[in-house]
Specification:
By secondary structure, the protein is mainly beta. It has one helix and eight strands; from the N terminus they run αββββββββ. About 10% of the residues lie in helices and about 55% in strands. Strands 1, 2, 3, 4, 5, 6, 7 and 8 form an eight-stranded mixed beta sheet that branches.
């Protein structure tokens, strides 16, 4: 039973989904669930590609979200549709598709935004 709870933390709250049967960049998808009653979440998933990390903190309507995508990998990152003025690493966010998805290469990222 605990396996299901752990999966909810890393896949649900932190949003990390790794599926090596898919082609890159769909092998790593990150889509957290920013819950109003949960002030923060943090998870790491160790894979053959490397360690994927996602952590976020919610303070009122402000969210600070940190990601780490392993070296040599790319990830599909789903940005929240209910967010206003998303910044990435202190600058503008790369253009998103209509589904609010961005493709990011390996590295560390910080997103800041307000949830409407």
């Amino acid at each position: 039973m605990l396996g299901h709870a752990e999966e909810w933390f890393y896949r649900g709250l932190a949003g990390i989904n790794v599926d090596l049967s898919r082609l890159e960049p769909q092998q790593i998808t990150i889509r957290p669930d920013f819950l109003a009653k949960v002030p923060e979440a943090q998870a790491q998933v160790h894979t053959v590609l490397g360690t994927v990390e996602s952590s976020w903190t919610l303070e009122g309507s402000k969210v600070v979200w940190h990601l780490r995508i392993p070296a040599g990998s790319r990830a599909t990152v789903v940005l929240p549709l209910a967010a206003a003025e998303i910044s990435m690493n202190g600058g503008a966010t790369p253009p998103a598709s209509p589904k609010s998805e961005v493709l990011l290469g390996s590295g560390r990222y910080e997103f800041r935004f307000q949830v409407r």
